Each structure stands twice: as C-alpha cells, then as structure tokens.
Amino acid sequence: MLTVYHLEKSRSERILWLLEELGVPYHLERFARDATGRASEAYRKVHPLGKSPAIRDGDVVLAESGAIVEYLLERYGEGRLAPAPGSPARARYLYWFHSAEGTAMLWIVVSIILGMAGDATAPLRSVLGGEIDRFFDYMEAELGDGPYLTGESFSAADVMMGYVADVADERGHLVNHPKLRAYLTRLRERPAYRRAKQHG
Fold first, then answer.
1. Looking at the whole model, is its pTM more than 0.90?
2. Using one digit for the tens of pLDDT, what is the confidence trace for 104-115?
3. Which of its termini does the chain have fewer beta carbons within 10 Å around, N or C?
C-alpha cells in the first residue's frame, strides 16, 4: 500500500487531499517537527533533506509535492483531475499548477522567514508583501465568477493552489479578495478536503 510520510503543518496536506479525491487507499505515518520547527531526525531517515511530503509506492520513494501530485495522477488518476493534453483548459491548468510553488508559495515562505529575522528586514518584507498582494489581485481577476481555476471542473491545480490559499488566508493576504475567499470556502467544503484535514 502507498505510504504518505506526513510532517505536521506542511505541504503533505496536498497529498492527503489528492488521495482522498482519487479514492486511493494509503497508509499514513505522522511526524512532528523538532524544537526548531524543522523536520526531525526520524523524518530525515525517510528523506535526507527532510522534505515533506514524501511518499513510498513500492520501490518508488518520492519527495516534492508537485512531483508527487503529477506521479499520483499518472499512476492512479485514470484521466481524472487534469485536463487532457491539447484540451482548451490544459495551458491554464499548467499555469496554476506550477505557479502555486513557482511564484506564490515562494514569496509567502520568504516573507515568513524574513519575519523571523526581526525589524531589520521590514523594508524587504514590505516589497514582498506588495508582490504577494499583486499575485492575489491577479488570481482574483482570473478566477472571475468560475467555481475553480480551470472553470467548472475541479482539478489538481486547485489542490496545489488550495494549499497556498489556505496559508495566505491564515496570514491575512485574502482579506480584500472576496472571490478568492469564496473559492477557498468551496474548496474547504469538499468532502475529500475535510477527510484529509481530519486524517492529517
């Protein structure tokens, strides 16, 4: 059975959510963070870099949430949760899937780290805050009145970006984005999302 190595408060929430959406059975191994907030030594035995999430599927051990999502869709998706290559929604799906980590989460994480460094980083945090706001302004406009990022159909891009929206909401970045808040509410109401939160 597929094993998910789940580090608390991490991107592994995406993997649990995706597996629940796909109905794929899995074994969950939970790990707490150490006193510094990083992966424990026990977790580093799973992956030397302490990267979470990580999965084991037979002989395959894989880290990085985006890579895991793509792997799981190829292996277990049976064409679900991703527009087919060449379809009109494919380019939009790819953009949102990859911008979750390539743009949005990068800026949020750097902002969090700089916040730990104290007042000296305030000017840089202000610049990053502007970039984060600009990204969510763009996402708000692009989402429009559609229920999901690629239109009417929920996809793995929503799983990838939904985690970002969760983190952004916790940090107050969605206060002035009513469409994004409504989008996040729709995601949180999905039964698979709720099951993943309970299990994780």
1. yes
2. 999 999 888 888
3. N
